[in-house]
């Protein structure tokens, strides 16, 4: 990004999900490629799943579980040879949307990440509420209301919101639905493509997903009564969700 916040170039690589050292190298490789392209050294900010514990400098609550218990910020600073800024990705998203995005002009903004994981961030009067443990807005490991599937979550819980509403949860709903044509889907993106093409079976799965999402968000509304909920993450690109979800 330039000094005005305009994006100059975007690079994307797959995450080495089970390998911590390779994850560090992947991030360093992205920084190196961008700096080589522009011939200058940039400040670096990292949006991460989970939170950085203030007391120990170690990561916790990451759905990229290989990061948990690791000094990610310290290790990246050593590798990149500079100080970096690091914050929870859902918090970054919520603050950005509340400042100059879809939540601009609203007093209370709840930002939702729906993707590989399910996270959230809470902004009140353009101020991020992080909490002493960095967990404010993290609704993904509350139980999904009405669920009784005993679906295992990486956190050790059962029927967490995240285990039902992340990308893998949506895909599992499709492949387990016994609906013709959905049993061999390989991604949530493929399901969305079918729905946009008018496939009734795919739309039925998305309707079920939207019902689960509505129940989960209802608990958030009961607690904080936000002025607006902004969806982000890969699943927020499913346009039919905005028709299927009821308004606040």
Keywords:
248 residues; globular; two-stranded parallel sheet; 37% helix
Write the layout of secondary structure elements.
Elements: H1 20-38, E1 45-48, E2 51-52, E3 59-60, H2 72-80, E4 85-88, H3 89-100, E5 108-114, E6 118-124, E7 127-129, H4 161-165, H5 167-175, H6 188-196, H7 200-224, E8 228-232, H8 241-244
Parallel strand pairs: 1-4, 5-8
Antiparallel strand pairs: 2-3, 5-6, 6-7
Helix pairs in contact: 1-2, 6-7
Share of helix among residues?
25-40%
Give the beta-strand count.
8
Average of pLDDT? 92
Q: Calculate Rg over CA atoms.
A: 19 Å
Order of H and E elements? HEEEHEHEEEHHHHEH
Q: Give the count of helical stretches.
A: 8
**How does the major sheet shape up?**
4 strands, mixed
- Unreliable residue runs: none
Biggest sheet, strands in spatial order?
A: 7-6-5-8
Cα-to-Cα separation, first versus last residue: 34 Å
General form: globular
Percent of residues in beta strands: 5-15%
Main structural class: alpha/beta
Account of the protein in words:
37% of the residues lie in helices and 14% in strands. By secondary structure, it is α/β, with parallel strands linked by helices. The strands form 3 sheets. A 4-stranded mixed sheet has the order 7-6-5-8. Strand 2 and strand 3 (59-60) form a beta hairpin. Helix 1 (20-38) crosses helix 2 (72-80) and helix 6 (188-196) packs across helix 7.
